Amino acid sequence: MYEPSTIVMKNKSIVKRSLKSVWHPCSQMKHYEEQLLIPIAKGRGSWLIDFEGKKYLDATSSWWVNLFGHNNKIIKAFVSKQLNQLEHSMIAGMTHEPVISLSEQLSELTGLGHCFYGSDGANAIEIALKMSSHYWREKGKTQKVKIVYLQNSYHGETLGALSVTDVPIFREHYSQLMQKHLQVDSPDWRLKAPNESIKEFTSAKVEKVKRLFDEKAHLISSFILEPLVQCASGMGIYDKQYLKDIRSLCNEYDIHMIVDEIAVGFGRTGKLFAHQYANITPDFLCLSKGLTGGYLPLSVTLTRDEIYEAFYHEDVRKGFLHSHSYTGNPLACSAALGTLSIFKDNDVIGNNAIKAKKINKLFESHKDLPISHFRNIGMIWAFELNNNVNIQKVIQSCVANGLFIRPINRTIYFMPPYTINDLEMRHMVKTSEEAIKRHA
Ligand SMILES: Cc1ncc(COP(=O)(O)O)c(C=O)c1O
Description:
By secondary structure, this protein is of the alpha/beta class. It has helices at residues 11-21, 61-64, 73-83, 97-110, 121-138, 159-162, 168-171, 198-216, 240-253, 305-309, 330-345, 348-363, 391-400, 422-438; strands at residues 40-44, 47-50, 55-58, 114-118, 146-150, 182-184, 220-225, 229-230, 236-237, 256-260, 284-287, 299-303, 371-377, 380-385, 403-404, 411-414.
């Protein structure tokens, strides 16, 4: 009989079984012959723990999902309660309390009137892209089908989302399957010339967008961007003025603004939503990842009432007929309600600001390391390792010393769970510092 609690499953045998049957994501499977695959038995707070009891500080919040760490009591209680009530019912032709409460709360937080659900971030992007061009079609503007996206953008791996993603290694084998859209320069500060001010650099990028809109607005349905931080292409940070200016241009040229906060939503940048730094309201807002705090997959695309109303009609074909089997799943919605309750009952953003200050103080010792472009916003830290540092060795050394990091190319970043305490902060900063020093 299978009794997990009584079986002592050692790391080696778990890894062996995994490599035999699991095709791991975002991985060259052959590299696991040499690189580590860490077998995780359980999670507690900011830590992941393997089958032999070794602990790893989860400095990426498990791909930026577990905002409140692992085994969070509050979210768990919301899900457990819902488990005794209703695990699933479709929401075409039916509805239930968790999906209603969640939609009401999200609308209140964002000022966007309607919520459409999916399961993963990429779903939310597909939904926004489809809704936007469908909206223009309903308005008789059938040519408005092109999407403007940023250099170095990342919006997910399904074909629609990938077609507005600028990460060549993810795209190159599938280009023949995708529509061509319109790419504009990234406003990432790292791309600025040394003698240029951030203001000059940002306004030059906005000016280029304006020229594109002047020429092609009649063909463009939407402009999609990750507000303030382009995470998956290496934590590139840009100025909030860019968001403000793009919002104005989108208004002026009748183009939707799709704001993808899948990675940065729910406090990661120091405000509940990153676009709030610019005091703007998007036409579409995509959320996922931290929404359920790592408990269950869920994503949501929020939009303005005026867009929703364009689909409201006698004719079924004018409705938005997109669906997924698990759309609005009650367990996933209850996990999201648990996450929102934590924000409601605690000053998460204020507490994070205090933690960020402490972490920045600890990172002061990094200034003599062979790194460049050290940057921080909210609960995100990143820098590039100089070419003389052996990055694989740095990763191995961090992991061996109980710190899990997953750099993007030569960018080392930290997006720790908001549960991180003083000792854990020290562990994160000092372990990485020692690893870099050792392998420079
Ligand atoms: C900004 C952004 N958008 C979309 C996605 C895709 O989300 P998912 O991996 O859940 O499909 C990601 C994932 O990292 C992301 O960072």
